[in-house]
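Justification of resources, computational component.

The compute hours requested in this renewal are based largely on the per-chain cost of generating structure records like the one below. Each record pairs the submitted sequence with a full structure-token output. That output is archived, and it is also reused by downstream analysis tasks.
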Amino acid sequence: MVFRGRKPVIYLYPPSKFQDVSVQLSLAPSWSFSAVYPPPQTGSATAAAYQGTQSITWLVTADPSGRLVNKPIGTEVSYLYWEARSSGLCITPEPSRSSSPVAHAEIFEPMRPVLSPGDSVFLPKSEVPGYLDATLKTLGLHTEARTSFITYWLPNILEHEYIALRFLAQEAYEAAARLDVSPAPDVVTRVFMLFRGVASSDLAFWEPAIARAEDDINFWVDVVGVDPVRASNPALFRVLEWGGMEVR
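The structure output for this chain reads:
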């Protein structure tokens, strides 16, 4: 089965206008780009040419407002967009950046995304938009990002009676999709959701996730590993990304 990482988008918020910002995104061997916009500066000048490749680089001018100008074409955009599909190669990546030792560190394998009662929350589809809005706000996403996230995934969510969902630890996501920005940002917030539809006949299996949905949503801050206070500080160079994957 082919899984897709859908609409990850990358926002840049420098404290002042930055003329030259390099954004490099490198995927683990288990998935490859299926679409990108605007066209990156590595290789061909057309976004379609990047299908099947695993590393791209954008060169942009960035304003504090979030407005980006893609060099050298001059296209103005609000964010950098990419999507990827699993490639059929199940190769577990090594963490791409050093971090404190963590027992049982999570691993995200795009060919085998894991969503279970032990790591998820379980909700009727009618409650998912409100839960997402509150959780994404807690994780540091601004109004436009939250709205875009929810409206992008809402048609898929409404296809199901119940939804199980979770957010990946940034470290696990980074190992599958390494992001390198230069100049180095002060804070990076990467929020990636896994979700799946669940039938009413399977409710008993998801009881731990049903109970977890009643917990204070602030627990996701620790799970993902974000710093919402720094992520909202306009004096810092901030990078924000959101995306997701439906597990079928």
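Residues 43-47, 91-104 have pLDDT under 50 and may be disordered. The first helix runs from residue 128 to 138.
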